Protein 1
Amino acid sequence: MFEVYEPREDSFMLSGHVKKYSKGFVLDVGTGSGIQAIAASEKAKLVIGVDISRDAIKLATENAIKQNVKNICFLESSLFGFFKKIEAKKQFKNNCLKNLKNKKIQNFLEKKILFDLIIFNPPYLPQDEGIDDKSIYGGKKGHETLNKFLSQAGYYLKENGKILIVFSSLTKKEKVDELLKDYCFEFKQVDEKKLFFESLFVYLIKKSSLLKTLEKKGLKNIKKFARGNRGLLYKAILKKKKIVIKTKKPESKAKGRIANEIRWIKILNRHKIGPKLLFSGRGYFAYEFVKGDFILDFIEKNNKENIIKTIKNVFNQLYIMDSLKVDKEEMHHPLKHIIIDKKPVLIDFERCKITEKPKNITQFCQFIISGGTKVLLNQKGIKLNKDKIINLAKAYKKEQTKENLSKIFSILN
Ligand SMILES: C[S@@+](CC[C@H](N)C(=O)[O-])C[C@H]1O[C@@H](n2cnc3c(N)ncnc32)[C@H](O)[C@@H]1O
């Protein structure tokens, strides 16, 4: 049991911006006393306020009636939970729509519920031991409820809709910034207030152009997956399948890398190399998710026979690349460049370049005889003669033929 949150500094700060940005259909998450929802109702066609607390819903409804606000309705719901329930439509009709005479609004909401503005003054403080108050504590670190909200908010927001949030320095601003980028949003700070113990921030958030593009393609659950030196990877679901989207990190100065990678994946896919490219656009591309282990983990988990088979398979793929006169680069240190499930899949082609003498195979020879890898292979009973491999790699470098590759294979045992 917890008390309904009485409006304070953060509420007043946010409500000023709510008045400015309200229009069309507005959702106020964690409505509490209903302060934001009522502020939004001045300019909006319809406002829905949700809260996890039944007491809050009661109080907010009373407050709206007192102020004679008609275009508003309040529903008990944890975040967007209400909108996901099958029963929700019926309840929604009975609780909200029956008072609305406007047919256009009714039709709109009966199809798919999308908002022009979503407001959230979340519980944002890090949890205090032993006290359970969902109106102020946002989880152990303070940002957990906000994280959950951001992971779903995009679904309920119109393409050009906006989100307004307020939070405190105690929630950790860098973490909030990181979360927003993880979910592919763009944002700007529109207000800041220094209080005695903390600072408060108001953010105006919208969908990035990449997010809009990906949503139009039917992608769901878009979330950051990994960060490389230059690239940023998102994972998502498309027709129930996991996929990966690669784009450039906004801060990266490297030019043309994504376009280069798209070009090479297209060529290499024809030779059954690389993850399957699904689609691409300006500055991004999407490919099938490759599940499996990176090469060293794979070696650690597998037996001699499997390891040798896999290493030969990698060599064969690299031979094709050498024959195409393309240098992948970084194959002397391919720790995150090869994923092995049933067979090895090479990833990361952003640095591919045409060259007369590609070094893919010679670099991979270097890798298998380098310190850590050699020790690991040794433990699995694969004893490599360093000098012999160096000599065979030199011979291959002079003449990049299948015959010279077979000679390297012959000492892999
Ligand atoms: C900081 S108060 C904000 C209240 C009001 N919007 C304001 O600006 O004053 C946070 C509100 O979020 C509600 N809340 C907490 N967790 C929630 C959840 N998972 N779903 C919906 N509301 C939640 C709390 O009950 C509380 O009313």
Protein 2
Amino acid sequence: MAYHEYIGNLHMHTPYSDGEAWHSEIADAAIATQLDFVVVTDHNIWIDGVQGYYGDEKRGYVLLLTGQEIHDRTRLPQVNHCLVYNAKTEMNRYAPDPQALIKAVNRAGGMTFLAHPFDKGIDWREDIEGIPWVDWDIEGYTGLEVWNYMSSFKAVLENPLKSVRRLFSPEDAIIGPDEETLAKWDQLLAQGKRVVGIGNSDAHGTPMKIGPITHIVFPYDFLFNCVNTHILTQHPLIGEMEHDADIIYRALARGSTFMSYRIPGEAKGFRYSAQGAQGATAQMGDSIRLGHGVTLQVLMPVRTHIKMIFRGQVVADETNVENLTYVASQPGAYRVEVWREYKGIERCWILSNPIYVEPNIAPIGVTGGESIKKAGY
Ligand SMILES: [Zn+2]
Ligand SMILES: [Zn+2]
């Protein structure tokens, strides 16, 4: 089946919270970098009335939507930043209780993603603290922000001298997403949970001062060329805001999406699908019965390094290939990583969402798709 692919970014800020650029300026940056959609997520506020298509025939168009990033501002140090999409109302009143927030968003037909869950502070900068997720005893959330570019950037500011260099060429040091976050994702998937992964910029456009140097970390257009989320959909976007938002949010809820890092190259064209018994097929985010084995297939438009990951282990690993085939013989979530060299170092280029291979007889207690069903998808 042919799918339509769209690239977007789902985490950024305006002056309504702690960002520097207004919605129309963000739209300009998104058009300049050829994103198809962006979702602006200001802290603890939902901005209505700015959603829609921006641009013109000459430059192209981008769909700008608004979500929220909710946390309890009275709790110090800061923890538990939660990205909220498609709730259609402000959710700040649930900020003190993440589980209540998740439930309320699900009731409203929206989605929740735990933002930068293993974010760390900078040892030599007391003013820059980590904002991790700490309350893991929650359920019903849609997914994790597996790769947050600004969080990755903070992680490579090991000392003041290195940091000055990193300000001007962050791409030298950034290899892939945070390993603890990936391990947590794999752990949750291995427990039989459905957890959608997204990759984002967390753009603020804020000036950062290191010694005598002040530099913007980073302009929105720079960040839109770094970590993004691609959606795959059977139905194309048609240029009509509500219709297209629905398509994007459905793909996101289902997990028919993948994350890409644009610095090593444009990642369009990645495809990952499965074939099972009696003509059954599945793509990212779908479930498929194990039967006598499910054939998982990865297709890339260029030769590259492809890995199949199951329960946190690499179960297939091929370099310099355009495709990879793996026959899954055990139930569970299978995800794909694609790596590519940039500036002499292999970097994580693509992270797929999993295909869920279901046991032939479902064990008691594993239902799957909980939050998806609740959200009406
Ligand atoms: Zn945050
Ligand atoms: Zn943020």
